[in-house]
Amino acid sequence: MNALLRQTLSPARNPCGGLAVRVAGEACVLRCSGALLVPAHELLIVADLHLEKGSAFAVRGQMLPPYDTAATLMRLEDEIAALNPARVVLLGDSFHDRAAVPRLSGDDRDRLERMAFGRDWIWVEGNHDKAALETDGLDLPGRVVGDMAVGALRLTHEPGPGHSHETAQGEVAGHLHPAARVAAHGRGVRRPCFVTDGNRILLPAFGAFTGGLNVRDPAIAGLFPAPPLLGVLGRDKVHPVAWRTLR
């Protein structure tokens, strides 16, 4: 077994053991943070950070605690420190609006620079941040792409329509912020989750201020021709949950 894969699956070596799955034949690890690790390519993928969402609401007079960007980047920093990936892909909607980049604090800019240093750092354009990432003179580390291929995987922000094999093959997407309601400790608990049928995978939102869409919503359920597997995020493990057990 690949050494990095073995490390990410071992609770003794890492606070989150992760859940191993295959997507289009590629070995992947679903992380408790909501990040996706592809060990063979030393690749870490996160979706929907929505940085500066709190400040976007504040501009409109809705006061939220202004700590979402720092909290999100600290979680990402922890994942990078634990896994040391050679490549990091931010799978779109990394920023909440087109003016988010100028609102970043100096500390948060410095944190981004530190994380990106010495590795391939890639921003995928999303529907929220395409204008922000296209701004002339964008002062951020890394490079910007529309989508990209890595091995058998195709990384994109928004999942393609329908569930045809050609559309879905190897697709890794975000955008929809999947969440599931499951039974835990005698009550219903709503948690972010991964959704995969082995052909494509949908990532949960990584950002601190992001909500979630129930996986039973047709926007998510309609992407999968057969009931998919859910990887529900827990504190110290990702729980495999069958579709039929959902509330």
Please tell me about this protein's structure.
The chain has 247 residues and is of the alpha/beta class. It has one domain. The protein contains eight helices and 16 strands. It has helices spanning 3-9, 53-59, 68-83, 100-103, 106-116, 130-133, 165-168, 218-221, and strands at 19-23, 26-30, 36-38, 43-46, 87-90, 120-124, 143-145, 148-150, 153-155, 171-173, 178-184, 187-196, 201-202, 213-214, 229-233, 238-242. Strands 8, 9, 10, 11, 12, 13, 14, 15 and 16 form a nine-stranded mixed β-sheet that branches. Helix 3 (68-83) packs parallel to helix 5 (106-116). It is globular and about 45 Å long. Mean pLDDT is 85; it is low at 5-14.
Helices and strands in order, then pairings?
Layout: H1 3-9, E1 19-23, E2 26-30, E3 36-38, E4 43-46, H2 53-59, H3 68-83, E5 87-90, H4 100-103, H5 106-116, E6 120-124, H6 130-133, E7 143-145, E8 148-150, E9 153-155, H7 165-168, E10 171-173, E11 178-184, E12 187-196, E13 201-202, E14 213-214, H8 218-221, E15 229-233, E16 238-242
Parallel strand pairs: 4-5, 5-6, 6-7, 9-10, 10-13, 11-14
Antiparallel strand pairs: 1-2, 2-3, 3-4, 8-9, 11-12, 12-13, 12-15, 15-16
Helix pairs in contact: 3-5
The gross shape turns out to be: globular
Radius of gyration: 17 Å
Helix content: 10-25%
Structural class: alpha/beta
Q: Output the number of helix runs.
A: 8
Q: Helix and strand succession?
A: HEEEEHHEHHEHEEEHEEEEEHEE
Overall strand count: 16
Low-confidence stretches: 5-14
